[in-house]
Amino acid sequence: MNYRHAFHAGNFADCMKHALLVWLLQALQRKPNALFVLDTHAGAGVYDLADERARRTGEADAGIRRVYAASPAALAPYLAAVDAALPRSPLPRGETTAPHAASFPPLAEGGRGAGGARELAQGCERPGHPLPLSPSREGRGDAYPGSPPLIRALLRPQDRLACCELHPEEAAALRRFFGSDRQVAVHQRDAWEALRGLLPPKEKRGLVLIDPPFEDRQEFDRLAAGLTTAAARFPNGVLAAWYPIKHRAPVRAFLDAVADSGLRDVVAAELWLREPLDPARLNGCGLLVVNPPWEFETEAPALLGALRESLGSGEEGEGWDLQRIADE
Ligand SMILES: C[S@@+](CC[C@H](N)C(=O)[O-])C[C@H]1O[C@@H](n2cnc3c(N)ncnc32)[C@H](O)[C@@H]1O
Asked: Which of 246, 261, 274, 288 has a beta carbon 3.0–4.6 Å from 241's, enabling a disulfide?
């Protein structure tokens, strides 16, 4: 367990995963029924992009800062969610996360402090969803939210979030971040075991984000097995699983394994910044979605195209793809 997300927060892979995650959650919220969201590999919370670890890799410069600079219309809901997820006060230096509850009241429960929803710009609200586009925010690009604060910013009062994180320091930071938030549970617990222990949820509707660190070669196998477990326990749940694209062979083997596993209704969204030929480099990434909400396949191309436009440098082989892996 050497992986620390602070080195990678806000990189192109976070932008891709989180932009699609925001779309998926907002699509599920077209219906008023309560949602359960399980974030199996949650990380630490909010990441300070001025932190030495983030500066050492510079990955946010090629990620979220480029998306802010381009601010394409298709990614406005994602950027609004990022803004809404960040604490209003600066992060204390040396802390990965700031206390959540003291920093901002949950948006869905009545605004975000001074100005709140009233000062928000017009025109980007999805019908039926409480998250409007934030005005341009001072310090954009200084901090970046991990998946738990991003999901939390989108929860309605009837929804809840469970986060699992195995690393003791990351789990402790995440606990501090959420404090006594009653809509969020933080478990220091193994993700793969939690798929058995926490599913199915009583709400019977929701989303499972599976975002492993891919520190070893077995991770693709564990992910394929985890998807089967999650789908068996929560058959109508939306499952979203992130995977790296370094070179094609392991990705092809993974997608073939998923196709042969008996999972139904599976789509893979992929973005790559260059031809995926170098096995030592993160050349792209994918999000496998089981039970995609209605219109995912018609709306995801606009997101993927905007991500490519914002994040790509015109390298040879840059592109995106959306492919159906298994029919309904
Ligand atoms: C890629 S990061 C998560 C990033 C986060 N989902 C986000 O989007 O901001 C993966 C995290 O999984 C944690 N982790 C690794 N193995 C785990 C396991 N078996 N169960 C739970 N967490 C694990 C790591 O400590 C790390 O914080």
From this structure: 288
Q: What pLDDT, on a 0 to 100 scale, did the predictor assign at position 96?
A: 53
Tell me what pLDDT residue 126 has: 33
All structural domains of the chain with their residue ranges: 5-326
* pLDDT at position 40: 98
Predicted pLDDT of residue 277? 92
Q: Which residues contact 229 (CB under 8 A, 6 or more apart)?
A: 192, 195, 196
Q: Which residue has the tokens 């939306």?
A: 238
Sign of CA dihedral 172, 242, 33, 118: positive
What DSSP state is assigned to residue 176? H
Q: Check residue 208 and give its pLDDT.
A: 98
Q: Is 171 in the pocket of ligand 1 (CB under 6 A)?
A: no
| 151, containing H or E segment | helix 147-154
Residue type, 136: S
- Which residue's CA is the closest to the ligand 1 atom numbered 6? 42
Tell me the CATH architecture of domain 5-326: 3-Layer(aba) Sandwich (3.40)
173 CA to middle of ligand 1, Å? Answer: 13
pTM of this prediction? 0.89
Q: Would the CB of 97 count as within 6 Å of ligand 1?
A: no
Closest residue CA from atom 26 of ligand 1 = 43
Q: Which two tokens stand for residue 16?
A: 């891709």
CB contact set of 61 (below 8 Å; sequence gap of 6+): none
Distance, in Å, from the CA atom of 143 to the CA atom of 128, rounded to the nearest integer, reads 28
pLDDT given for residue 217 in this prediction: 86
Residue 92 has which token pair? 């204390």
- Give the count of alpha carbons within 13 A of 181, CB side only: 31
**Pocket-testing residue among 41, 147, 151, 242, ligand 1, by greatest number of atoms within 8 A of Cβ:** 41
> Mean pLDDT for each consecutive 10-residue tract of the chain (328 residues)?
92 98 98 98 95 93 96 98 84 51 39 27 32 51 94 98 97 97 98 98 98 95 98 98 96 97 97 94 97 98 98 95 97
Q: Distance from the CA of 207 to the center of ligand 1, in angstroms?
A: 17
